[in-house]
């Protein structure tokens, strides 16, 4: 399940100069911020790794214990909702002060988006951006017929590997000739398409398992097949 921190910072990139100005201090290869909220009743401790991954703790100022109710889905009382809302607002303030917006969570997805713009003069649209679960689903369409030739989504690894892994990853769905499917699915990071026809579409994980050049070649093929 996506954490509160992952939800807020999924489409953000940290800017070290802004982080230091806001109060983050360098620790090892990352940064740490300690900040009180709700009139000092709670303290948040945010840790950001060198690669931008964020984890957080919320400490009860009186007991000095972690406030675990924050992350329990069945904890829905007025008090825990107040704490949760206060923490989420703090994270939003941190994001506004210390980050820049990006279209997608993964570096490779953003690099490929730029490549698609340069090659086809197409930018993604986000038809489901009002729905939290699907807001980062970006569709690339032909300017002439509005058909999709690529779709970038953020999904759980479990929907690809069927192994129950809840970690999130960006994938790109691309159309392929049916006769190429068997060979492509032998490659690392390539799967039967999530939520699309398995015979004519594939999902490629955007974690640099496959190079930008290889994926761009498949994108160009998908573009031609959907003209």
From TrEMBL:
Chain segments annotated as coiled-coil in the UniProt record: none
Bilayer-crossing regions: none
Signal peptide annotation: none
Pfam families: YjbR
Classification via InterPro entries: YjbR (IPR007351), YjbR-like_sf (IPR038056), YjbR/MT2646/Rv2570-like (IPR058532)
Listed name of the protein: MmcQ family protein
